[in-house]
C-alpha cells in the first residue's frame, strides 16, 4: 500500500530524525557525541550511588575520549562520522552522564568552544530533569536564542517503582516539573524511554509512551534495554530475576507506542547500540538494520502509522 506519511525521506511510517534535520537545515546533519567529563547525582551520592543499574559509562559508550579536550573530541568523532557522510553539518551532542550537573561557569567552559567550530548548526545536551536549576535554565534559554538547542531528558519510564529498581533516583513528578520548565521557555526537548525494563509489562511500556505522547515533546528516543557486562543489571539478569524482550515482542511494542505519538513528534531512535564485546543480551539487537526493517514490516502489515491513536 502507498505510504502517505509526510514526515519521511525514505518511505518510513514515522517522523524520522533524518527528515526533520534535512527539512530544518536543508542538508545532511549528524550528531557528534562528546564526553564533557560530567557525573550524575545518582553516582556521586547527591541522590544515590552507582548510577542507573543498566549504565556502564554514563550512556556515552560511543562518545569522545574524556581524557581529551572537548574541541579535540569533536574533531576526532567528526572525522569518524565523515567516513559515512562526507558532506554534512554538525550538532555537538554532550551524551555521557548528566550534562547540566555542574555550575554554569563549567557548562560554559564545555559548551561554548564547540559552538565556535566550523559547520556547527546547533547543540544537543543530555541530562536529567532534576538537574535544571534556575541559573542553568537561564543559560539554556540564552543558548536557545543563539543556536538550535535540544535538551534530552532520560525518563525511561513513568513508573516510580521501576525507577527505584533501576536506581534512577528521581521521580516522574520531578521529571514533569523539569520538562515543563523547558517547555515554557520554548526549548526543544527529547524524551528517552527504555522498553524491556525489569518488572515492566507491555501495558506499562505503552502507558509510558502514551503519557509522554500527551506532553508533545519535540523528539522521542525509544531504547531497547541492553544487558552489558559489568553492570548491576547484568547480575540480576544472569541470576534469572527477569528476561529480556524477544525481537517480536520488541517490534510489536515499538509499533504500539508509535501509534500514540503525534505525527509531529520526531522519532530520533527506535533501537539502541550495545557494543559487540560487552553485550550479554539480547544478542538479536546486534543486527540493528534487521530490527528497523522488522519495525517497518510490522507497520506495513498492520497498515498503521505514527499518530493514528494520538489524542491531545
Question: Can you put this structure into words, describing what you see?
Answer:
The protein contains ten helices and nine strands. It is α/β, with parallel strands linked by helices. The protein is globular. Helix content is 37%, strand content 16%. The protein has a seven-stranded parallel beta sheet, sandwiched between helices. A two-stranded antiparallel sheet has the order 7-9. The longest helix has 15 residues, at 288-302.
Q: In a nutshell, what does this entry contain?
A:
With 312 residues, the chain is α/β, with parallel strands linked by helices. It has helices at residues 17-25, 70-82, 104-115, 134-146, 160-165, 172-184, 202-215, 232-238, 247-258, 288-302; strands spanning 29-34, 89-94, 122-127, 148-156, 188-195, 219-224, 227-228, 266-269, 279-281.
Give the percentage of residues in beta strands: 15-25%
- Work out the number of β strands: 9
Distance between the termini: 28 Å
**How many whole angstroms does the radius of gyration measure?**
19 Å
Would you list the SSEs in sequence order as H and E?
A: HEHEHEHEHHEHEEHHEEH
Quaternary status of these chains? single chain
**What is the average per-residue confidence, as pLDDT, rounded to a whole number?**
94
What best-fitting shape do the alpha-carbon axes yield? globular
Low-confidence sequence ranges: none
The helix-and-strand class reads alpha/beta
Percent of residues in helices:
25-40%
Amino acid at each position: 500500500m502507498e505510504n502517505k506519511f509526510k514526515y519521511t525521506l525514505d518511505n518510513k511510517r514515522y517522523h524520522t530524525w533524518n527528515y526533520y534535520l534535512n527539512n530544518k537545515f536543508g542538508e545532511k546533519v549528524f550528531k557528534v557525541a562528546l564526553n564533557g567529563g560530567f557525573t550524575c547525582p545518582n553516582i556521586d551520592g547527591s541522590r544515590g550511588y552507582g548510577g542507573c543499574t543498566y549504565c556502564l559509562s554514563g550512556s556515552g559508550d560511543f562518545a569522545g575520549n574524556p581524557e581529551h579536550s572537548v574541541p579535540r573530541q569533536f574533531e576526532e568523532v567528526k572525522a569518524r562520522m565523515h567516513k559515512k557522510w562526507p558532506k554534512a553539518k554538525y550538532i555537538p551532542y554532550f551524551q555521557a552522564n548528566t550534562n547540566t550537573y555542574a555550575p554554569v561557569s563549567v557548562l560554559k567552559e564545555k559548551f561554548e568552544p564547540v559552538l565556535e567550530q566550523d559547520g556547527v548548526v546547533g547543540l544537543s545536551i543530555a541530562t536529567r530533569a532534576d538537574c535544571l536549576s534556575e541559573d542553568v535554565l537561564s543559560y539554556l534559554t540564552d543558548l536557545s536564542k543563539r543556536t538550535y538547542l535540544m535538551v534530552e531528558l532520560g525518563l525511561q519510564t513513568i513508573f516510580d517503582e521501576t525507577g527505584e529498581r533501576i536506581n534512577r533516583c528521581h521521580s516522574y513528578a520531578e521529571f514533569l516539573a523539569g520538562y515543563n520548565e523547558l517547555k515554557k521557555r520554548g526549548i526543544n526537548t527529547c524524551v528517552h524511554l527504555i522498553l524491556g525494563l525489569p518488572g515492566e509489562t507491555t501495558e506499562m511500556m505503552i502507558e509510558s509512551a502514551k503519557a509522554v505522547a500527551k506532553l508533545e515533546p519535540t523528539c522521542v528516543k525509544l531504547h531497547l534495554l541492553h544487558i552489558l557486562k559489568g553492570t548491576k543489571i547484568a547480575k540480576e539478569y544472569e541470576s534469572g530475576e527477569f528476561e529480556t524482550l524477544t525481537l517480536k515482542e520488541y517490534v510489536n511494542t515499538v509499533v504500539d507506542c508509535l501509534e500514540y505519538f503525534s505525527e509531529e513528534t520526531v522519532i530520533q531512535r527506535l533501537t539502541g547500540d550495545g557494543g559487540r564485546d560487552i553485550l550479554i543480551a539480547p544478542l538479536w539487537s546486534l543486527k540493528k538494520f534487521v530490527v528497523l526493517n522488522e519495525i517497518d514490516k510490522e507497520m506495513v502489515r498492520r497498515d498503521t502509522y505514527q499518530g493514528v491513536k494520538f489524542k491531545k
